[in-house]
Structure formats: structure tokens, C-alpha cells
Amino acid sequence: MAQTKALLKAMLLGTAITAAGAALAGHHGDAKHAEVKHAQKIKAPKASAYIISPADGETVGQTFTVKFGLQGMGVAPAGVVREGTGHHHLLIDVDELPALNKPLPSTDQVRHFGGGQTETTLKLKPGKHTLQLILGDHMHVPHKPVIKSKKITVYVK
């Protein structure tokens, strides 16, 4: 319980600090600079995100677990500013990547895992679906260079 409270406090503090910084940048008329500034530069250029399971082409039930993988970086919750870290976003049936220079939208097709989660249970309608991971920084902005998984296809029975 104490760890959960400490984590929540750190997330709120990180969000408040970055929001204040963005507000100041906007106040000085340099919003574009603020947008780019909080996209982290990755020290480990070989960082990669991948989907551990299900496998590409696998047939799954309507409710199934997706396990996220990350190599060359660490996972940290949204709002926590820590170099070399990020958190997962799962793209479901997304044909074209969202804008990569601003926070990823939170929709049914772009799921946020800002708590630092490394897996989720999905419930999808029967049929063919695609899944892809993209890593976001403390403000949900994709890293530069973008760290994304290969897009996989699953068949829901």
C-alpha cells in the first residue's frame, strides 16, 4: 500500500512538473520546441519493443492475454521522468501510426499502459485483428527514434 501511494505521488509530481514546463514553453511562444523537447533521446539505439504472445498468425479465443516485451530500455509509469525508460501503448487494428511528435491519443484502438504494465487481457470480436506496441515517454510521446514492435496478426475465433 505504501509503495502504491509513493508511486502515485511520484507520477503526480512528474506530471505537474512537466505540465508546468510545457506551460512555460507555450508562454514564451515556443510550443513546437516544448513538443519536441520532452521526446526522449534514446542512449541505447538498439532498443526494441516486441509482442511476446500471442504469436503472429495465432488463433486465440475472444478473451486472451497480450504480453509485452522490451529490450534495451526499462519500463517506467507515465509521469515519471527517467532517462532510458518509457511505457507501452498497444495499437489494435491501426492501419496508420498516429502522430509521433505529440502524445498518443487514448482510444479503443490506442490503449495506454501508463502504470508500467507489461501485459493486458483483451476481448475482441471474432475475425482478423492486428496488434502493435509503441513506446511512449513520461508524457505519452513516442521516443525518437520511435520504438515500436512489428505488427502482428491474430485470428479471434
Task: Describe the structure in brief.
With 157 residues, this protein is α+β, with helices and mostly antiparallel strands.
Classify the oligomer.
Answer: single chain
What number is the mean pLDDT?
Answer: 80
Count of discrete structural domains? 1
Proportion of residues in extended strands? 25-35%
Low-confidence stretches: 1-40
Helical region count? 2
Class inferred from helices and paired strands? alpha+beta
Shape: globular
Measured on Cα atoms, how large is the radius of gyration? 16 Å
| Secondary-structure arrangement, i.e. CATH architecture | Sandwich
CATH H level: which superfamily?
Immunoglobulins
Write down the CATH class: Mainly Beta
CATH topology: Immunoglobulin-like
**Largest sheet, if any?**
6 strands, mixed
Helix content: 10-25%
Question: How many strand elements?
Answer: 9
